[in-house]
Design goal:
The chain is 44% helix and 14% strand. By secondary structure, it is of the alpha/beta class. The protein folds into two domains: 267 residues, Alpha/Beta hydrolase fold, catalytic domain (Rossmann fold); 96 residues, no CATH class. InterPro entries: AB_hydrolase_fold.
Length: 388
Amino acid sequence: MAARLFDMRVRLRLGTLLMALGLLPALLSGCASLARHHEAMLVLGDLSAGSEESRLKRRTEAPRREGVEYVRRGRAYRADVYHPLEPRRGSLILVHGFTEQGRRDPRLVALARTLGRVGFRVMVPELDGLRDYSISTREVQAIVDAVHYATRTGSQAPSHTALAAVSFAVGPTLIAAMDQEVASAVSFVVAVGGYYDMTDLLRYVTTGEDRGGSAREAPPPQREARWAVLMSQLHWLEDAQDRALLESIARRRLTDPESSVRDEARRLGPSGSALYELVTNEDPGRIEALIDKLPPALVKELEALDPSRQPLDRLHARLVLIHGPQDRVIPISHSRRLRDALPQGQARLFETQALQHVAVSPDWRDGWGLWRALVHVLALGEDKGEDE
């Protein structure tokens, strides 16, 4: 689901709106700011165009893509690195979401090329746990190792790099950015539609209650979200039959939400039943007790992937949060709470109606918030964190 972020449909009228509302302050603040504002519009236009012609494509050279393999402390990885013709904004590591195509997902490739055209050296590591829905702290370590690689390779490689992630990949990415081995090397993190508190995320996905936000604010959760959560945790079950049965249940319900899975549920063992009970529970008050019934290894991983349980003072990087108020997978309250948990000024939240979780609405009026966020990211890439 996270990869849909990159399939943007920004209408041509967006340019007129941004020219009218956004460029006036830039004209008053100087040529560099004006160029950045204009460049942000070109980026949005290029993402909208997809593989078709765009003004950005006509004006810039596509980055050169290099497939690389690297090893750190016995751990082997693959990645794609997009080298810009004019490297002027440092390195940016794109952490892909849940997608079987991994680093070669066409929408991710398009975004990497677009960012390369505006001067980022973009690295897209292959993360196995996000390809097969088995996300764990293994992904945290892989992102840490990617930062090591990005900051120590290339004849003109910068000493700092940035990170960008969406949805369920935001948690591992934030935790990696706080790792003491690389924290000082991460300049900023872009988090789109991410989570802050794992327990409250599970509560919302399964019961619809958003304890971190207003009772009237959060929309009802997507029915599919609970099954995606189930798929992402199956690898922690030791019983192969439980894994197979739960995968069958999840895939059937993702295909047909009304499909009967009673027979498979009756055949589950104790650990499988505990996970199934959590995912199908509809009582907000039972979440903590149901989590405690899960296999210890799974509970440990859930806690390790929970940003709210981490020492956030270890995060040195600036944080750019982008979230839609009507997100039906992860409520916007998570980004608000994360912003508020950090020192004032370290995190900035861009709320935009354009986002339906991480998919972008075709409503041209909603491009304003995304454009402002992009201007801010371009400024941070130049090591200029000023407001647009």
